[in-house]
Design brief:
With 310 residues, the protein is of the alpha/beta class. It contains twelve helices and eleven strands. The chain folds into two domains: 132 residues, D-Maltodextrin-Binding Protein, domain 2; 122 residues, D-Maltodextrin-Binding Protein, domain 2. Helix content is 42%, strand content 23%.
Length: 310
């Protein structure tokens, strides 16, 4: 009887004394940088070129803060989310709309935002030729439009804005409202078909318009803005919320100094970013308002259709 009691006590002590080893997935490696990108941040450049350049430049620009750096590239948000959950990456760089989608399912916090030549906010424009007679979105019904390539991972801002305007005009979809919808991989190429009368309208950012007009001053003389949406967010650098504050600060400092080195400037240039700045509370207010209005309009139309079907 005593023998069984002794065995039981030993078993109890062994079980309670056992401390499970910390897995590599859960351990925080402060010596390495693991960053994830989606294809959206480099859609104007070929995948092969950007992946090679980013991988080399990241290692060069963060060596002062980290012993090693690893870049991962994702075609889908679900793949990126899985790797962050499993701690294969601890920082990610995405357009703001992808960040807004990812934050619904991941423990992430915004750390930095991108700043272009005209500041941290972006403005989207709807352009037509001045001599076309088109002055409103209503005038574009049955006409042709050129726009940046749609984001296959989530609802991008171009589509959200255009759909919101069309829903306000009665609820028609993009493909049924316009006679032709052409998407271009390179944003700057959206303007020239309108300039050369090959399309009636285009959607671009103000930055793209200004850069194109610098090369061809006739752009500003012959094209005009008939609608605009400003105070929109650009890119977001977000981190795993589970990281220590010390590591978050280390990551913040590594990226804040990117624009101060030639290699860092090259890296930012690939993403059409001048520099990165600390996240500002309320930074995404305009973008969130756009998506909220898009959702509201969509629900109103769905409600009307439901009422008509009864």
């Amino acid at each position: 009887m005593k023998f069984h009691i002794i065995i039981a006590m030993l078993f109890f002590l062994i079980i309670n004394a056992y401390i499970p080893p910390v897995s590599s997935a859960d351990a925080e490696d402060n010596s390495s940088l693991k960053i994830g990108f989606t294809a959206s941040v480099y859609q104007d450049v070929s995948n092969t070129d950007i992946k090679a350049a980013v991988s080399v430049l990241i290692k060069k620009v963060v060596w002062k803060h980290f012993e090693k750096a690893e870049s991962r590239f994702y075609d889908t948000l679900s793949e990126m989310a899985t790797d962050l959950k499993n701690r294969k990456i601890d920082i990610l760089a995405t357009p703001v709309e992808e960040y807004m989608e990812l934050r619904k399912q991941l423990p992430i916090d915004p750390l930095l935002i991108s700043s272009a030549e005209n500041g941290t906010e972006m403005e989207i424009l709807l352009l037509v030729r001045k001599d076309s007679g088109i002055r409103t979105i209503r005038d574009l019904k049955g006409r042709s439009i050129v726009m940046p390539l749609r984001n296959p991972r989530c609802l991008d801002m171009y589509i959200a804005w255009l759909e919101t305007m069309l829903m306000e005009e009665g609820g028609k979809g993009i493909n049924s409202y316009f006679s032709s919808v052409k998407e271009t991989r390179t944003s700057a190429k959206a303007i020239m078909p309108v300039f050369f009368r090959q399309a009636d309208a285009c959607i671009v950012t103000r930055q793209v318009l200004e850069l194109t007009a610098e090369l061809n001053p006739q752009i500003n003389r012959e094209l005009m803005i008939i609608s605009r949406k400003g105070k929109l967010s650009q890119g977001v650098i977000a981190v795993d919320r589970r990281l220590s504050e010390e590591r978050k600060e280390k990551l913040r400092q590594a990226f804040l100094s990117l624009h101060q080195t030639p290699e860092g400037q090259q890296l930012l240039m690939l993403f059409k970013v001048r520099k990165l700045v600390p996240f500002i509370p309320g930074y995404m207010k305009g973008t969130e308002a756009l998506y909220a209005e898009h959702s509201r309009q969509k629900n109103m139309i769905a409600g009307r259709h439901l009422g008509m079907s009864k």
